[in-house]
Design goal:
Blueprint: H1 2-24, H2 27-33, E1 38-49, E2 52-62, H3 65-72, E3 77-87, E4 95-109, E5 114-119, E6 122-126, H4 129-137, E7 138-145, E8 154-163, H5 169-174, E9 184-190
Antiparallel strand pairs: 1-2, 2-7, 3-4, 3-8, 4-5, 5-6, 8-9
Length: 195
């Protein structure tokens, strides 16, 4: 009988230690934010318009705790959205036609407690981090090319990522195998035969 009590006591204490260890890792805070940190492409579509080939995308972007901590400490991070248009060829490699890039620089201003988002030489302040991230999360009718001939097969490779090359050099060295800073998504989409 005492042996059974001792075994029950050990099992209960082990499960309590495991619960305490999981709680200290921050897993409940991830559940409260609505998901795991990372980038997920929820919508990607192309359409042919009067202005040319237009791209629309929506991403779910959740920053990891390490990235948020770096932002709060004054380190600016750069996000990049890039689209590359290819023409399919049967006899050789596919021909790249156009490559366009959008870059956003996100920084926290501790004195004013505002988030500054810079894009194409223009910058704007936001009160909350989610407001600033919301600007990058979606784009509609982004013109990526002039009119594309309808008889050719074209496709677009779209990518959205956190550019770790823009971080300060000492941080780049320390990022070796950390998945918290590897925020990237890439997808290929065929250009539809529209207009």
């Amino acid at each position: 009988m005492p042996l059974l009590r001792r075994r029950d006591l050990l099992q209960r204490s082990a499960s309590a230690l495991l619960t305490a260890a999981l709680a200290s890792t921050g897993l409940p805070s991830l559940a409260q934010t609505g998901g795991h940190p990372g980038i997920e492409l929820t919508q990607l579509m192309t359409e042919r318009g009067d202005d040319g080939l237009l791209l629309s995308y929506t991403v779910r972007l959740e920053l990891s705790k390490d990235v948020e901590d770096a932002l709060y400490k004054g380190v600016a991070v750069v996000f990049v959205a890039e689209a590359e248009l290819f023409k399919s060829r049967w006899y050789w490699y596919d021909k790249p036609k156009v490559r366009i890039v959008r870059r956003w620089r996100l920084a926290y201003q501790p004195l004013t407690r505002h988030w500054r988002l810079s894009f194409d030489g223009l910058s704007r302040s936001y009160n909350a981090l989610n407001e600033a991230l919301g600007v990058m999360r979606r784009a509609t009718q982004w013109r990526i090319s002039d009119n594309v001939s309808g008889e050719d097969d074209h496709y677009v490779i779209f990518g959205f990522r956190l550019d770790t090359d823009e971080l300060p050099r000492p941080m780049q060295i320390g990022l070796g195998g950390q998945n918290d800073w590897n925020l990237a998504v890439q997808r290929r989409i065929t250009v539809t035969q529209g207009r």
